[in-house]
Amino acid sequence: MVTVHALILAVAMFSLGLVGLLVRRNVIYMLLSIEIMLNSASLAFIAAGARWGQADGQVMYLMILTLAAAEVSVALGIVLQLSYRFRTLDADAFSEMRG
Amino acid sequence: MLHLLWLIPALPMAGFLSLALGSFLSRRAIAWIGAGSVGGAALVAGLIAADFLRLLPDVTSYRQTLWTWVSTSGLSVSLSWHLDPLSLVMVLVITGVGFLIHLYSTEYMAGDEGYRRFFAYMNLFVAAMLTLVLADNLLLLYLGWEGVGLCSYLLIGFWYREPENGAAAQKAFIVTRIGDTAFAIGLFILFAHLHTLSIQQVQIFAAGAWPVGSPMAVTVTALLLAGALGKSAQLPLQVWLPDAMAGPTPVSALIHAATMVTAGVYLIARLHALFTLAPPVQYAVAIVGLLTLLIAATSALVQRDLKRALAYSTISQIGYMFLALGVGAWSAALFHFLTHACFKALLFLAAGSVILSLHHEQDIFRMGGLRRQLPLAFWTFLVGAAALSGVPLVTSGFYSKDWILWAAWSSPLSRYWIWFGAAVGTVLTGLYSFRLVFRVFFGPQRTAPGPGPGLAVAVPLVLLALFSLTVGFLEVPRTIADAPLFSRFLSSVLPATPSLPGMDESVEAGQQVTISILSLLGIALAAALFLPRPAPADRLSQWPGVRAITALWREGWGFDRLYDAAVVRPWLFVTRDTEDPIDRGYTALETAVRWCHRGLVATQTGRVRWYAATLAMGALLLLGLFALWTI
Amino acid sequence: MEWLFYIAAAVALTATIRVITHLHAVHALLYFVVSVLALALIFYLLGAAFAAALEVIVYAGAIMVLFVFVVMLLNQGPLTVEQERRWLSPGIWIGPSALALVLLGEVFVIIAGGGLGSADPVPIRPKEVSISLYGPYVIAVELASLLLLPGLIGAYHLGRRRAKERG
Questions:
Q1: What is the pLDDT of residue C165?
Q2: Closest to B256 (Cα-Cα) out of B388, B123, B178, B345
Q3: Which of B39, B419, B500, C59 is the one with CA 20 to 30 A from B302?
Q4: Is C113 in CB contact (< 8 Å) with chain B?
Q5: A24 SS3 class
Q6: Would an 8 Å CB–CB cutoff place A79 in contact with chain B?
Q7: Which chain A residues are Cβ-neighbours of C129 within 8 angstroms?
């Protein structure tokens, strides 16, 4: 039962992360919300791996971890550049590709 | 020699092709090819004429078929030439006068950058005109008909950089198109009923199939008449000819004086059998001729532009030809065509020489006193004007015009008032032609002339002057010397003019004297009004009534304004200012697409959160579908 | 030991909610660290000890620390808090919450639809993970290195402050 509940927890956290992504205008928070979503996805994988008794879940978790690490570093670099250039961290201000 | 007939249209055609494709040709080569092709055709025509005259009266026609043009069930048309006295006269005029005009153009157009283009178009025109007159069947005739219309358009708008010239060319083409369409419909009906388009056969079949005055004959001839009216610039389609003077002067001389505008006369003369089957239409021909004659003569009287005056004069003289055709004087009309071609071309070329010397000044009120400095132009113009007025006994115009008027008096198809109108026209003709002479060559000089013409201009002028004086002797009436050579020549093709009983020589002599007096009266009036300084005409034109009439006559009796209001404006309103449903359908499609586009563009906000939201919504949709599917 | 799982789950959820609603960036980050730690505990309870250790060391210990450093670098002072307050009006929660609730609902429906089966979590030891990783899933290792190298270069390049673009 725990594994199913862990799955439910993962989904709940994912949707919380989604809400955070859609609501917050500050890029930092958006990145944070994405991290939350990644985290919840990894929880889902671990739960699945535990349910079936295979190591695949944890292997996938390792991949997610690597991905999160690379993504965060690059994303934060971009955030730094954006803050230098636009002097704001408002995600809505970076909308030059409209139309 | 007769078998060389095909060369006559072929030489100018070859000239056209070489000039059109020969961008590398030098000016001399262009002049030689351009004038030479027509000259060659004239030479061949001369030889063929000599041969033909020798063969008369045993051989009255000659037919040469080149190849089959159209061959389907029901319609079989070949490219064949038909030579008989009528077409021979036309051919000799076209090639002879045409060659002189081409020769003149080698000097007149020498400074123009479109030298090669000019001669190419002129050669094409001559080829098309020869096709028209030599055609054995109506389809080939129509081909030539269209061809001359095309060349007329190309040559009127020759100096295409000026928009007015293009407008004038368009006007000419569109107005003649109206006539051409009627002509084509007439041909369709003709073919539908008689199943042939061969000119000879059409006339025979029609005479057999349609009784005189039958609706079918009237309809077909009326349509053909409409075509002739368009091409010959007669009422009501005469509005294009004055504006056509926008083209170079040789063009005006060749196309709009000597040849193309006489195509209508040729058509009616050629199909005279059809017209005699429809007396109402033949009567209409005479009426149209009379009205046009008078309207154009009055318009010519008050023109300021030298070429426009000559254009109206042309319209008027062709009115005389139509009048002749209408009263059954077929040969007289052709004779007047012959003399008119000579003196009208002469007048245009002399006018061109004057215009060129005055650096393209065409307003006669700015000319004057040129007779000493431009003697050649003066004397030749004088000869032309004399011929136009019909100065008795010495000019060709006298003989041809007198013949027409005698027919108007003596023909059973005519009425007294037709003769009277033509007689008034004679006075007017003398008046307006000598008005031009006195205004341009006498009186105070207002513009100084440049150098006189060279040889290439002088020779045609002199030759045409000579012809204008001598050609008349081809038909000397019985009251003078009785040498009806011309009518005898054409007698195998054109029937003799009918004559009422009691029209004997004394009546004819009386008529001739009257006409002579009238033409001299016109000249005298012109001398009285325009010769003294200051000209009494200037004072006369200040009177209010006279001024109003002058304004009306100057714009050709207001036909342009009438057509503009009655036809052009409503048409433009319908096409330009109302939206038709098909157009609206297309626009609706465009509006719908644009609406979708705007909708889709609205989704591209450039904001990341929005995009994330759309992602989430998409994922929701898919999950929902998945959920529905599994449960 | 099930009650431990539910406590950790509650902590994780609360911390996540606090993350997305907090006005101050650093506080939000710290709340996130808390939720990560809670999640690490859950991993351990699910028998993935190795994953739990990694979660704490790499995620909380490296990634989040990087986050904190960068946020501090960006110098978000009280003005930012004010700005966040303005941005976070109550009304803007409605749409995304609805979306998330629908999503939740759908997933619940799918889960409740059954066919998942439940079993007690089987503990997986690091040895098994490594055998699996360097056995059939060795490509994962290669991919990871492929990912990390450009990440490194990108992060270095993007993080540079170009002298001529000051101001």
A1: 53
A2: B345
A3: B419
A4: yes
A5: coil
A6: no
A7: 55, 58-59, 62
Phi and psi at residue B197, in whole multiples of 5°? -120, 5
pLDDT in tens, B318-338: 999 999 999 988 999 999 999
Task: State the Cα–Cα distance between residues B173 and B180, nearest whole angstrom.
Answer: 10
Answer whether residue C161 shows pLDDT above 80: no
- Residues B91 and B7: beta-carbon distance below 8 Å: no
CB-based burial, A30-53: b 16+ in 10 Å, e otherwise: bbbbbbbbbbbbbbbbbbbbbbee
- The Cα C53–Cα C126 span in angstroms is 10
CA angle C112, C118, C120 (to 5 degrees): 145
Give the closest-approach CA distance of B624 to chain C in angstroms: 6
Chain B, 554 to 613: residues with Cβ < 8 Å from chain A are 601, 604-609, 612-613
Query: Cβ separation of A8 and C101 shorter than 8 Å?
Result: no
pLDDT digits (tens, 9 = 90+) for B379-391: 999 999 999 998 8
8 A C-beta contact, residue B268 and residue B285: yes
- Distance between CA atoms of residues B385 and B587, nearest Å: 61
d(CA C26, CA C74): 11
ipTM confidence score: 0.90
Q: Which residues in chain B show pLDDT less than 70?
A: 577-579, 631
Chains A and C: how many Cβ contacts under 8 Å?
236
pTM of this structure = 0.70
Q: A87: helix, coil or strand?
A: coil
Chain C residue whose CA is closest to A54: C124
- Chain A: nearest CA to C159, how far in angstroms? 4
For residues C146 and C163, which has the higher predicted lDDT (pLDDT)?
Answer: C146
Residue B373 has a pLDDT of 84
pLDDT at position C142: 93
Q: Does C107 touch chain B (CB under 8 A)?
A: yes
**Cβ-based contacts of C102 with chain B (< 8 Å):** 620
Q: Which of B273, B143, B264, B278 is nearest to B200 (CA)?
A: B273
Nearest-angstrom CA–CA distance, C11 and B604: 39
Nearest to C124 by CA among C43, C55, C29: C43
Contact B288, B234 (CB under 8 A): yes
Estimate to the nearest angstrom the gap between the alpha carbon of B622 and the chain centroid: 79
B110 and chain A: CB distance < 8 Å anywhere? Answer: no
A chain contacts of residue C5, beta-carbon cutoff 8 Å:
2, 5-6
| Dihedral angle, C-alpha B5, B6, B8, B10, nearest 10 ° | -170
Structure tokens at B424: 């008034």
Residue C166: pLDDT over 60:
no
What pLDDT does B99 receive? 94
Q: Touching C: which chains, 3+ CB pairs < 8 A?
A: A, B
C4 interfaces chain A, CB cutoff of 8 Å: no
Between the CA of residue B588 and those of A3, B578, B580, B599, what are the distances in Å? 59, 16, 12, 16
Instruction: Write the pLDDT tens digit of every residue in C27-83.
Output: 999 999 999 999 999 999 998 999 999 999 999 999 999 999 988 888 777 777 888
- Is C164 a residue whose pLDDT tops 70? no
Say what the pLDDT of residue B290 is.
94
Phi, psi (deg, nearest 5) at residue A36: -60, -45
Are the CB atoms for B115 and B359 separated by under 8 Å? Answer: no
Q: Using the beta-carbon criterion (under 8 Å), do B619 and C103 form an inter-chain contact?
A: yes
